[in-house]
Amino acid sequence: MAMNKPADQGRGGLAAPLPEQVEVPLDNDPQLLRIRRIGKKLFDVANCVIAFGNTIPPQLSSDPAANGVETAFCHDISLSDETVVVHDTRRHASLALHPAVNGAPHIRFYASHPVYNQDKVLVGNLSLVDYTPRALFRESERQMLADLAGLVERELELRSVNASQLDLQKKNKNLRRKSLIDPLIGTWNRGAIMRILTIEAIRCDKAGLPLSLIVADLDYFKKINDTYGHPAGDAVLVKVASRLRSCIRPQEALGRYGGEEFLIVLPGASHATAMTVAERMRAAIAAQPEAIGGTNLNLTISAGVASTDMFPTATTEELISRADVALYAAKDSGRNKVMNATPPDSP
Questions:
Q1: How far apart are CA 272 and CA 266, in angstroms?
Q2: Residue 261's closest CA among 301, 290, 224, 223?
Q3: What is the CATH number of domain 7-166?
Q4: Cα–Cα nearest to 303, from 238, 237, 215, 224
Q5: How many angstroms separate the Cα of 60 from the Cα of each of 55, 105, 106, 130, 193?
Q6: What is the spatial distance between Cα 84 and Cα 142, in angstroms, rounded to a whole number?
Q7: pLDDT above 80 for 103
Q8: pLDDT at 11
Q9: 139 counts as catalytic
Q10: What is the CATH architecture of 190-340?
Q11: pTM over cut 0.85
């Protein structure tokens, strides 16, 4: 049975333009390789090849085995939107000119069925290649070839669905992350840092580790806003957040707790370690003036520290309250200071 249309019209011919492309890694996809093995066994042919419009055929010299030649041969044939059966390639107008037909390894039989994507766009062909011409290719065999191509289309559809689901999950994750980030300074927002504090409190309690937190407040922030304007105040907050972030480790968390107030969660840190971190933060802020409106402004913070090794039964809310008390004690004593919350009976 001959082909339905001449090869030079793009139906099984050579070097015709490629249709819309589909991104499919052909060489190592396990599902497509399984379909190819089934086709090879089912039709008792030398090879079953799945060629897509965007795949690059292997060079004949890159694979001395016949498998590489067969795959390259199928890539050389333009994609067809009909079932193509060439009983003897030597008798075909264009295929007879192919070097793999008129020379080694002398391919003699070729058949293919179109493969469409979920949008019904032609994206590839499922092809059969053999070295013996065939007098017959029955209607039942055509149907089996169509069924096999249908399995390829099913894999493409599943892949598209999976890709869409992964993309949706990624977008949802990004949206969720954005909902947890302060849009101005890029730290965790209040809701997020409170959730982190709760999670870390539970984890540290189970592991028998201390949990410390720091409440830090930018000194005289209202005066900065009143004098230089809110845009300048926002710029200062961004700079302060960046410096504070540079003082903590990856497992520690920095969040905007209020307008100019920050909450820092330090899982596993004792009160002594937390005091060291807080003092490092204070020094980092005070170390260098910030240029605002042509003026170099000296910035400072005040901070309060509270730890579970000083308040072993305290809830997270109580720890924050203790740190707040220490923060205001630091402000009352002149600002630009760090104070540690201690139990009332401590020396």
A1: 12
A2: 301
A3: 3.30.450
A4: 215
A5: 15, 11, 14, 17, 60
A6: 9
A7: yes
A8: 41
A9: no
A10: 2-Layer Sandwich (3.30)
A11: no
